[in-house]
Amino acid sequence: MFQQIANDPLHQFQVNTILPLKLGSWDISFTNASLWMVIAVLGVSLFLTLGIQRRALVPRRWQLMVEMAYEFVANTVRSNAGEEGMRFFPLVFTLFMFVLFCNLFGMIPYSFTVTSHIIVTFAMAMFVFLTVILVGLMRHGLRFFKLFVPSGVPSWILPLIVPIELISFLSRPVSLSVRLFANMLAGHTMLKVFAGFVVSMMAAGGVFSVMSIGPMLGIVFVTGLEFLVAFLQAYVFAVLTCIYLNDAIHLHEDH
Amino acid sequence: MRALMKTLAASTAVAVLSALPAFAAGGEAAHGGEHAKGGLPQMNAETFPSQIFWLVVTFAVLYFVISRIAAPRISTVIEERRDRVADDLDRAAEFKAQAEAAIKAYEKAVADARAKARAVSDETRRKAKAEADRRRADMDAKLADELAAAEARIASRKAAVLSGLKALAAEAATAAVERLTAINVAAGEAEAAVDAALKR
User: Fold this and answer.
1) Confidence class of residue B26 from pLDDT cuts 50, 70 and 90?
2) ipTM for the complex shown
3) What pLDDT score does A113 carry?
4) At A82, phi and psi to the nearest 5?
5) pLDDT of residue B38
6) Could you tell me if A81 and A139 are in contact, meaning their C-beta atoms sit under 8 angstroms apart?
7) How far B90 CA lies from chain A's nearest CA (Å)?
8) Any CB–CB contact under 8 A between A45 and chain B?
9) Which helix (H) or strand (E) holds A71?
């Protein structure tokens, strides 16, 4: 397994079945991807429940981190989707923590990055997308479709604007999912490619083994960068979810 | 900002997606066809049902844990702290008001006491002055009485002495006249003569 990872920068994304399962004709085997989803959920659950367990008036380290995460997401929701958006706080908080922990656990060597799979990010993005449509239709009925007709635009230009708005709206789940997936994929691949450089340069010997310090430093730098990206992409996912929910809640009212 | 993010995302996506075949090809080359499917593991649709199924299950569990257990607890703790801090601030303001009231009361007490002390000292001074005046008046009256008495005494003594002296003078005059002239002067005459002499 280690040998393969060193040789193939894409091997880390391989999904391996741990426990074969079937649901009708569907293959729902428990895989390493499923395992890391479970680990992420356990991690978030333990972090959020044990951290707050002492309910201290003056928080210690863990409680402070839990409260900071909570306040951070709460402020994000409040500033992007308003006070009404706070109804969706548990959803956004779950999305943020899940993506964050999947990203961060993916930084453990030889682990599996759940969010580096387009199907996972796309499923989450579609879930957000459908939630937005559902909320919009439930709150505004058919007026929700005024979202595609910006106010204050001359009517003769509407045939041009409406399709653009429609396409931009429909491309939301794509951009939302591809952004996260591509970031994870690119970062993790880059790490392994650099690591591969170090190995092959060391193997080449001579001047190359001295020069291998270059990609080695590159790995250190990119690892730091990847931690930033892990957090940033979780945040971006949460913020965009809030912005989309804001559209559904307020239409174009406060724009 | 949003436009910028969209552009960034789009360009990232394009760059990565265009790089994917290269990665995939590289992977395949490195493997030497180890995988039956080849290409990106992410594009292997056979894993999709399992991934979606477990994503739904785990995400639902996490949503339940967060919305029912974690978020209410955290918000309770934060609310309690906020209330407690607000309470403490209120109490501090109350105490401050109390302290200010106490300072005011103290200052009033001090001012009252000072005024009272002044009144008492004024009163005392007034009384002492009155008493001193009264005593001086008494003393003056007494001294005047004593003076008058003494003067009266002196006058009476002087009168007594003078009357004695008159008789003596009359006697002496009578005797002198008798001796010189052998005229016996009547007592009354001698006295009248003395009086006349004294008046001169």
Assistant:
1) very low
2) 0.89
3) 93
4) 75, 180
5) 61
6) no
7) 18
8) yes
9) helix A61-81
Is A23 near chain B, with CB under 8 Å?
yes
pLDDT tens-digit map of A96-125: 999 999 999 999 988 999 999 999 999 999
Series of mean pLDDT values for 10-residue runs along chain A (255 residues): 62 86 87 94 93 80 91 94 91 96 93 93 95 92 85 84 91 94 92 88 85 89 94 95 91 60
Backbone angles phi, psi at A27, to 5 degrees: -90, 105
Q: Which residue has the higher pLDDT, A152 or B25?
A: A152
Q: Is A150 helix (H, G, I), strand (E, B) or coil?
A: coil
Helices A172-204, A118-140: crossing angle, 10 deg rounding: 160
Name B164's bridge partners: none
Q: Kindly report the nearest CA distance between residue B23 and chain A, in angstroms.
A: 8
Nearest CA in chain B to A233: B9
- Predicted confidence band of residue B22 (pLDDT cuts 50, 70, 90): very low
- Asked if A54 reaches chain B (Cβ–Cβ under 8 Å), the answer is no
When computed from its CA atoms, the radius of gyration of chain A, rounded to whole angstroms, is 22
A57 DSSP 8-state letter: S
Report pLDDT digits (tens) over B71-96.
Answer: 999 998 888 889 999 999 999 999 99
Tell me how many degrees the CA angle A16-A20-A26 measures, rounded to the nearest 5: 100
Q: Which amino acid is at B189?
A: E
**Core vs surface per residue B113-149: b (16+ CB within 10 A) or e:** eeeeeeeeeeeeeeeeeeeeeeeeeeeeeeeeeeeee
Alpha-carbon distance of B73 to A52, in angstroms, equals: 7
| Helices A61-81 & B71-181 angle (0-180, nearest 10) | 100
The CA–CA distances, whole Å, from A173 to A146, A170, A242, B22, B172 equal 20, 7, 14, 25, 167
Q: What are the phi and psi torsion angles at A168 (to 5°)?
A: -65, -35
CA distance A210 to chain B (A): 25
What is the C-alpha to C-alpha distance for residues B172 and B176, in angstroms, rounded to an integer? 6
Nearest by CB to A98, from B23, B42, B59: name it. Answer: B59
B101-116: pLDDT as tens digits? 999 999 999 999 999 9
pTM of the complete model: 0.71
Contact B13, A175 (CB under 8 A): yes
User: How far, in Å, CA of B13 to CA of A243, rounded?
Assistant: 21
Q: What is the pLDDT of residue A185?
A: 93
How many degrees, rounded to 5, is the angle at CA A184 between CA A180 and CA A190? 145
Would you tell me how many other CB atoms lie within 10 Å of the CB of residue A18? 12
